[in-house]
């Protein structure tokens, strides 16, 4: 597969991604657990069919010490016993927000309440921001057909 556009060599794309990276850095400096952040990014990327982001976030998670077992089970998190209740709530919120067009009325209150039970206001803002940011990245990468498989951990650091 060949990308339709190179978003990183175009001046508009470069400027956009500089701001995008600044937003991501803000999230990574929050108190939201890094493992949760990576699991959320991976799950949204799987749902959206973004191979590049699935590859990137799986590799970044492994480089940060995440187990292969947990990464392999993200797509089936409901049946897996390897996630905490907090991580499960974050993954559920991620799925509901990523599939927002599939549900009438957006994210159900009970889904939000399960997440709010485990995360404080700052962490919830970081979680919501992570879901929004990864969904934007997924959509851009899918539109331009960014190929997957060649990402090296920390490549965009």
TrEMBL record:
It comes from the Bacteria. Pfam families: CMD. InterPro entries: AhpD-like, AhpD_core, CMD-like. This is Carboxymuconolactone decarboxylase-like domain-containing protein. Transmembrane segments: none annotated. GO terms for molecular function: peroxiredoxin activity. SUPFAM superfamilies: AhpD-like. It comes from Streptomyces lincolnensis. The lineage of its organism: Bacteria, Bacillati, Actinomycetota, Actinomycetes, Kitasatosporales. Residues 18-96 form the Carboxymuconolactone decarboxylase-like domain.
């Amino acid at each position: 597969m060949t990308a339709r556009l190179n978003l990183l060599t175009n001046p508009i794309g470069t400027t956009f991604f500089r701001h995008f990276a600044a937003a991501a850095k803000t999230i990574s400096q929050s108190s939201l657990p890094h493992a949760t952040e990576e699991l959320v990014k991976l799950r949204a990327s799987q749902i959206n069919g973004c191979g590049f982001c699935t590859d990137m976030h799986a590799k970044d998670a492994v480089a940060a010490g995440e187990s292969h077992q947990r990464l392999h089970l993200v797509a089936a998190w409901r049946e897996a016993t390897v996630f905490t209740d907090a991580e499960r709530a974050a993954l559920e919120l991620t799925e509901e927000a990523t599939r927002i067009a599939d549900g009438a009325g957006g994210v159900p209150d009970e889904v939000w309440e399960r997440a709010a039970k485990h995360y404080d206001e700052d962490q919830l803002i970081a979680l919501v921001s992570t879901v929004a940011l990864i969904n934007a990245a997924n959509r851009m990468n899918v539109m331009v057909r960014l190929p997957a498989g060649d990402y090296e951990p920390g490549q965009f650091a």
